[in-house]
Amino acid sequence: MSLSHTVLLVGSTAWLVLLAGCDGVTAPQSCTTFFATGDRTGWQLEGESVALHVASGTRWYRCPAGMVWAASRCQGQALRTDWDSAVAYAEEFSEKSGLSWSLPSNRQFGAIQESGCNNPSLNPQVLGGLEVDNYWTSTRTLHNARFRCTLYTHGGEVDCRENRENPHPFFLIID
Fold it and tell me: How far does Cα 9 stand from its chain's mean position?
């Protein structure tokens, strides 16, 4: 931190003003530039559209719900739904695919957070189509039945006082 000072003369009174700056503090790098093209450290691809997070054992659909992985990226538009519709989508996706898909919990989302970068706080070389937004999690809150939890992808903060009727994107996992 740097300090500088200025002396102000007001009438016959001199005032010493100290100014402090935070020039030694830098914001974390964006994960979009932090990871080199193709850097999927800690992940294994299972086909084109599913990635296994090795440390947690959780399989993630690589795009937010509503988008598809094609031509090496997520394409389409992410769905933005209320929490109940997101859960219903996961159930329907499970029926049609024959696999057990669900929304990730706060813990599962936390396991894939990147500490060395943010904006978004996830590896975009693995999970594509990332917008900085609140993403639904499966974790329920004890505060009130009308609230559910979301994870804000800029820095990875969890908020469990999100009205379940608000529209948000979401990811799907196989646990």
Answer: 51
Neighbours of 154 (CB within 10 A): 14
How many Å apart are CA 105 and CA 58, to the nearest integer? 11
Residue 13, pLDDT > 70, answer: no
Q: Is the pLDDT of residue 21 over 70?
A: no
35: phi then psi, degrees, rounded to nearest 5: -95, 130
| Location of structure tokens 């001199």 | 14
Which residue range forms the structural domain that includes residue 73? 28-174
Q: What is the Cα 158 distance to its own chain's centre? A: 9
pLDDT band at 25 (very low <50, low <70, confident <90, very high): low
Residue 23 lies in a domain: no
Instruction: Examine residue 95 and state whether it is found in any structural domain, yes or no.
Output: yes
Q: How many CB atoms lie under 10 A from the CB of residue 39? A: 13
The amino acid occupying position 17 is V
